[in-house]
Design a protein that fits this description.
about 70 residues; mainly alpha
Length: about 70
C-alpha cells in the first residue's frame, strides 16, 4: 500500500514537472513571437514614415521648379 502511494506520488510529480516545462517553453516561444512582431511593426512604421517624407520632399522640389519656370 505504501509502495503504491509512493509510485502514484512520483508519477504525479513527474507529470507536474512535464506540464511546467511545456508551459515554460510555450510561454518563452510566445514571448519571443510577440517581441519580434512588435519589432517588425516598429520597423514598418519607420519605413512608411520615411517614404512619406521622401514623397513630401519630392513634391516640394517639383513645386519649386514649377515656380521658377513661371
Amino acid at each position: 500500500m505504501e509502495k503504491e502511494k509512493k509510485e502514484k506520488l512520483v508519477q504525479i510529480a513527474q507529470i507536474g514537472t512535464v506540464v511546467v516545462y511545456v508551459f515554460l517553453i510555450l510561454h518563452s516561444t510566445v514571448g519571443e513571437y510577440v517581441k519580434l512582431m512588435k519589432k517588425n511593426i516598429r520597423k514598418e512604421a519607420k519605413r512608411k514614415d520615411k517614404l512619406k517624407k521622401q514623397k513630401y520632399a519630392k513634391k516640394k522640389r517639383e513645386l519649386k521648379r514649377r515656380k521658377k519656370r513661371q
